[in-house]
Amino acid sequence: MQLTTVGKPLLKAANQASQLEQAGAGDPVVAERLRKLKLVETLRKKKVPWDEVQKLVGISKATYHRWKKRLEEQDLAGLKPKSRKPRKLRRKVHWKPDVLIRIERLRKQNPTWGRWRIGQRLHREGYTLSERTVGRILSYLERSGRVEPVSAFLARNRKARLRRKSQRPYARRKPAEYTALRPGDLVQVDTLWVDLGDGTGLRQFTAVDTVSRWGTAGVYSRASAKTALDFLQQLVRRCPCVIRAIQVDGGSEFMAEFEEGCRVLGIELFVLPPRSPKLNGMVERLQRTFRDEFYTRALPLGIEAIQGELEGYLEHYNLHRPHMALGGLAPVEYLAKLQEVSVPLESQMY
User: Fold this and answer.
1) What residues make up the domain containing 49?
2) Domain Integrase catalytic, which positions (predicted)?
3) Which long-range contacts (CB under 8 A, 24 or more apart) does 21-30 make?
């Protein structure tokens, strides 16, 4: 390092300070502190600013005065590093075995309980332990591996729940190479919550064939696997083509009885990835049409009466309503065109 401010006097001071190392030869830390004290004194005689002294020597002004005072009062012993051991140490407490066993048993029975709940339980049983003591015992039990930390228990069970949720006996992701070419190759199914405005609401199951745009729907008081199975049976009966695959989201109503129903009927069941409603875009669009065209009209009271009105709208939707995606044809007209047969005058599906 080139010393522009101090120059040669600093080198001379370093040589003088090295002689002091012999005084503290028994302790290299004492010798080093003596050398730094001498360097600071020499630099200050040359009127070197304290900020530069601190950079050159490596000690602050407060440290210099503290060392100097201890050297004057205690001689070389004052420059020895002081022990950093706390003046007061926590006494090692040996807990009674019955207390350890009781707290361990309570935590194993209630894996998410912390020191407060366990402490409250112990107080009811006659123990006189503070909440902090219970916390120290729990920490000891966790370190020794006798109980599992609450965070580890929650993380492990969260992963287990995700694994259980993802395991479905029949449903699977739609293969990338699967393409719907014929009517019935893929039917999208979804649920719609409808607020009737009088404090009540209903659940509508909606289905649409992705090729012909033929659609159907059913209203229920709730969306469950049993009501979904009932809608599946209605869908199979009404659909003018053979259904080969159905695509749904991950809702619980499309599990259990609904999934088993698809398996029994020999219908492929595809489940969408999480947070991807756009992959069921056709049925989502159909449900918007129901909101705009059907649920904006005055409806009767009761599920059965609303279902009756819905049947009339579905007949209009499938037989008469033009679809832009079908070149202005209605779904039944488009199906008839594909089959190269005439369009029936009356629907046999409702």
Assistant:
1) 8-79
2) 179-339
3) 23/76, 24/76, 24/79, 27/76, 27/80, 29/79, 29/80, 29/81, 30/76, 30/79, 30/80
